[in-house]
Amino acid sequence: MRTVKSNQKNGAASKAITPAQTQKASETSTAKQQPKVSLEDRIQKVEELRSLTGKRQRTVDTYHQLRTFQFGSDENCTLVLTDSQGQKFATNNSALISMLTDYFATLLNDKVSELDDEIIGFKL
Questions:
Q1: In terms of C-beta distances under 8 Å and separation of at least 24 residues, what long-range contacts does 35-38 make, across chains too?
Q2: Which stretch of DSSP H or E encloses residue 79?
Q3: For residue 89, what is the DSSP state?
């Protein structure tokens, strides 16, 4: 009487595939599927990443400049907004100025977080 081993089917030994072999085969097929990136395309991507990091740095600098802005509650501080036609809005209201600086700080902080996510997710 013939005994069939656990790794045999129909009396023939089957070759077990290890996880390392599966991963290597997957990496090989992925490498074959990825198109070659030209030097110009890679340089363009690097420039895009440099632009993103520059934008992030400028936003961080603006945020820190805004957070270090000090003003007293004695109406000596004035906020002036000027539009493209030269019209101006000015206020000495320290409560309004404080609310606006806090709002601007929140917007800048959110923008830095968005840029961080975009930089982390950037593909070369």
A1: none
A2: strand 79-82
A3: E
CB 91 within 8 A of CB 97: yes
CA proximity to 79, closest of 92, 95, 65 = 92
**pTM above the 0.85 mark?**
no
Give the tens place of pLDDT for each residue, 58-90: 999 999 999 888 776 666 788 899 999 999 999
Q: How far apart are CA 41 and CA 47, in angstroms?
A: 10
Amino acid at 107: L
pLDDT at residue 94 in the model: 85
Rg (CA), the chain: 31
* Closest listed residue to residue 101, CA positions, set 65, 73, 74, 47: 65
